[in-house]
Amino acid sequence: MKIHDLHAIFLANPSISTDTRKIKENDIFFALKGENFNGNTYTQKALDNGASYVVIDEEKYVANNKTILVDNVLKTLQDLANYHRKKCKAQVISLTGSNGKTTTKELINAVLSTSYRTIATKGNLNNHIGVPLTLLTIKPDTEIAIVEMGANHLNEIEFLCEIAEPDFGYITNFGKAHLEGFGGVEGVIKGKSELYDYLISSNKSVFLNADDPIQLEKLKSFTKKYGFSTTQAKYYNIELINAQPFVNLKVEDIEINSNLIGTYNFTNCCAAIIIGKYFNIELPKIKHAIEKYIPDNNRSQIINTKGHYIILDAYNANPSSMKVALENFQTLDKPNKILILGDMFELGNSSHEEHQSIVDLTKRLNFEKVIFVGENFYRTTTNSLKMQSFADLNAYLKTNSISPKSTLLIKGSRGMALERVLDNI
Questions:
Q1: Taking every annotated instance into account, which residue ranges of this chain make up the domain Mur ligase N-terminal catalytic (predicted)?
Q2: Can you tell me the distance from the alpha carbon of 209 to that of 196, in angstroms, rounded to the nearest whole number?
């Protein structure tokens, strides 16, 4: 089937599913494959559950005229998304970076949705499957689509740009994330910069943090750039007032008091501001949108429980985000500071060095109590408490209660699922 014919079917049934457990009536089910599953085998179940059509790539699973046989289901999903993107009037803003992508995406959407009809990536659907699914949520009246792009190896952002064909782009930062896949920090910079490369070669527009020397260098000869800075007069100036604990900033004569913890969230707010300004949104609307945004899903959540003040930042972690989180936590004017830190994943040969570096940083910052959790932290050299597994941590907390009225930072990679520790605090 030609893509334009499939697109016509999609327009009549504009909802996609890749999971038969979540199918809604008249969804089109794309039978994707993974290491441990084959979506083709769920063809009949998808139809029984209400799917209008099922897209498959194994002929033996053809059931009736509601099954669409293609050469490759994943490629067809990606091609359909690109075709749909081309047919829509929406402008596409793509963003990537080592840290802060999802928070920045949510802030940008909060600001732009005050004046435009927008769609944005749901959760972290930011890979070779998530980006197409996001693009396929663009409606005929959508004006701006905010598309998050994640990557853990070179050429991935380049590929996602070919699907999304963004009109604008922003990179949050370049940090020590997915070092195993990128082969080191230089690989991270090169990989994330593929978004810039696409926009420059397409003569599109870039938003930038002009206080980031890497971004400045990458874009020094490119003219279609719109940036913010705390010091450089040629860019839009935004001032950080403080982060005790929430980011408080000033732009022009307006003060914005966010619900975001830490100075590292300052640039995330700035990105939303500069993009809002580019799209002619008035500052009072920008202020209201940022102040109304409250993080969730274990991203710098503030939890007050049993007299404790807890910063739950257990959605993810890498050496860069861990470092800024610890430095920010150290500056907070709060009593009885306790750290519960879980392993950081996908660091390859740098894993031991990076975990030891975090251990050493906690010692220099002189925290009252530190508990490290996970195989990687367990192999480090430290006088602080080390737990080899989450089960060990649970056992410890059942017999060793947290001091009353403590301030805790809980942070680790997603695979550690450290939010589970709340049950025992």
A1: 16-83
A2: 13
Q: Which residue has the tokens 């993810």?
A: 316
SS3 351: helix
Cβ atoms of 131 and 81 closer than 8 Å: yes
Strand 246-251, strand 236-243: pairing: antiparallel
Distance CA 365, CA 331 (A): 10
**Phi, psi (degrees; rounded to nearest 5) at 21:** -70, -15
Q: Which two tokens stand for residue 48?
A: 């029984």
Residue 100 marked in a binding site = yes
Query: Domains of the chain (ranges plus CATH)?
Result: 3-71 (3.40.1390.10), 88-292 (3.40.1190.10), 301-424 (3.90.190.20)
* The token pair that represents 415 in the structure block: 């695979």
Q: Any binding-site annotation on 18? A: no
Q: Which residues have a Cβ under 8 Å from the Cβ of 71 and sit 6 or more positions away?
A: 57
CA-based radius of gyration for the chain: 23
Q: What is the pTM of this model?
A: 0.89
User: CA–CA separation, 192 vs 173, rounded Å?
Assistant: 9
What's the distance, Cα to Cα, between the start and end of the chain in Å?
57
What pLDDT digit, counting tens, does each position of 196-240 carry? Answer: 999 999 999 999 999 999 999 999 999 999 999 999 999 999 999
Looking at 9-85, which runs of residues are DSSP E strands?
A: 16-17, 28-30, 53-56, 67-69
CB atoms within 10 A of CB 217: 8
Task: Please list, in sequence order, all residues whose beta carbon lies within 8 angstroms of the beta carbon of residue 266, skipping any fewer than 6 positions away.
Answer: 240, 243, 247, 249
Which residues sit opposite 38 in a β-bridge? Answer: 33
- Closest Cα to residue 144, out of 123, 172, 175, 116? 116
| 99 assigned to a ligand binding site | yes
Q: 323, exposed or middle or buried, with CB in 10 Å at 0-12, 13-18, 19+? A: middle
- 350/32 Cα distance (integer angstroms): 34
CB atoms within 10 A of CB 47: 19
Q: Does the annotation place 33 within a ligand binding site?
A: no
229 labeled binding residue:
no
Considering Cα of 128, then 133, then 136, then 142, what sign does the dihedral take?
negative
Token pair for 359: 């251990």
Counted residue by residue, the chain has a size of 425
In angstroms, rounded to a whole number, what is the distance separating the alpha carbons of residues 43 and 355? 45
Compute the distance between CA of residue 228 and CA of residue 246 in angstroms, rounded to an integer. 20
Asked if 91 and 168 count as a contact pair (C-beta separation under 8 A), the reply is yes
